[in-house]
């Protein structure tokens, strides 16, 4: 299928052509025709599958065919500032040859500047729930003419506690509207949400909880006290064009960034304690190639669309198997090739077993030949008796899972 088969308006055809889109991705091929028909959509798709265009393109087409209003006709809700900003950029690119007015609305930046733009009139708002609700309460925006509501990364918004805010926003908008909900996973909470917010939705499921086959996944077993040394050796000895490195906590990100900078490696860092301007500057430096390594917490696990990341490195394993998939999905975007390395200590083995169970396969284990793994373990790195007991129990549980799966 080709994009020109969707019978889009000339301004959109021109924008799509200039953006280099020729053939739609699977989620776009299924979602765009249904959305153009005005159907509600429930989509399950990983980031990197092209779902942003899947909901933006038909929505912009619909707004081009409807009556112009001072008040917004479309709202996109997203869990993070970075994702909201990224969606707004994509929307601007698609609507560059149209008169549509699009603004991102999120915290961490001047609310006064957003207020001025909202009061001048806007067609599409891309927002985080909390800041949009703030503007609604201040009387800066009215949603009485809203035609389209998009909930992107809905599972992440629920995880972050945004459901009360979303409920209050939905209360402000017309019951007769088109709603599209996209989620990387489909837990019971999301299914319950669809019954409340969507009417007879078209169900689209693409690549659920599975990383693309174009990602080469490898595990590097390593004692806890040698993780940083092994990481530095990997970054220096392997062909790493650009790397996104995940830590579990903000403190770990700060410590790792400091140690990597001591080696002279070009590093940027991002986590939730940074002001928006600092977060944006770090992302821009990484995106533009001014630094080739970005250290991040899970704030970057979803939604950040940065092309050309050659390696995703899990310095720390995430707490949930699904987060592992979201993390490594930052590389191999839209069918490109990528590599995912995970540094695994003996204490991490239960988590790795859960990830491998979800993937349905073992991940390749690799040792770095030139690295010295025999440095004695210092006292601070020795596991406690409680940790050993918990890990033993977890291993037994995962062994049982593997036996059940192999039957």
Salient structural properties:
14 strands, elongated, seven-stranded parallel sheet, alpha/beta, 2 domains, Rossmann fold, single chain
Please specify the SSE layout and strand pairing.
Layout: H1 10-18, H2 26-36, E1 41-45, H3 51-65, E2 74-77, H4 81-94, E3 102-105, H5 111-120, E4 124-127, H6 129-137, E5 148-151, H7 154-159, H8 163-171, E6 178-183, H9 188-197, E7 202-206, E8 215-221, H10 227-237, E9 243-246, H11 250-262, E10 267-270, H12 276-287, E11 293-296, E12 311-314, H13 321-328, E13 338-344, H14 349-359, E14 364-365, H15 385-406
Parallel strand pairs: 1-6, 1-7, 2-4, 2-5, 3-4, 5-6, 8-13, 8-14, 9-11, 9-12, 10-11, 12-13
Descriptive account of the structure:
The structure is a single chain. With 407 residues, the protein is an alpha/beta fold. It has 2 domains: 3-206, P-loop containing nucleotide triphosphate hydrolases (Rossmann fold, 3-Layer(aba) Sandwich); 215-388, P-loop containing nucleotide triphosphate hydrolases (Rossmann fold). The protein has helices spanning 10-18, 26-36, 51-65, 81-94, 111-120, 129-137, 154-159, 163-171, 188-197, 227-237, 250-262, 276-287, 321-328, 349-359, 385-406; strands at 41-45, 74-77, 102-105, 124-127, 148-151, 178-183, 202-206, 215-221, 243-246, 267-270, 293-296, 311-314, 338-344, 364-365.
The gyration radius over C-alpha positions equals 23 Å
- Count of runs of 4 or more consecutive helical residues: 15
Report the CATH architecture of the largest domain.
3-Layer(aba) Sandwich
Strand order of the largest sheet: 3-4-2-5-6-1-7
- Portion in beta strands: 15-25%
Largest sheet entry:
7 strands, parallel
Number of domains: 2
- The end-to-end distance, rounded to whole angstroms, is 40 Å
Query: What's the CATH class label of the largest domain?
Result: Alpha Beta
N-to-C SSE series?
HHEHEHEHEHEHHEHEEHEHEHEEHEHEH
The low-pLDDT segments are 393-407
Judged by helices, strands and strand pairing, the structural class is alpha/beta
CATH fold group of the largest domain = Rossmann fold
From the spread of the alpha carbons, the general shape counts as elongated
- The helicity comes to 40-55%
- On the 0 to 100 scale, the average pLDDT is 86
Instruction: Tally the beta strands.
Output: 14
Spell out the CATH superfamily of the largest domain.
Answer: P-loop containing nucleotide triphosphate hydrolases
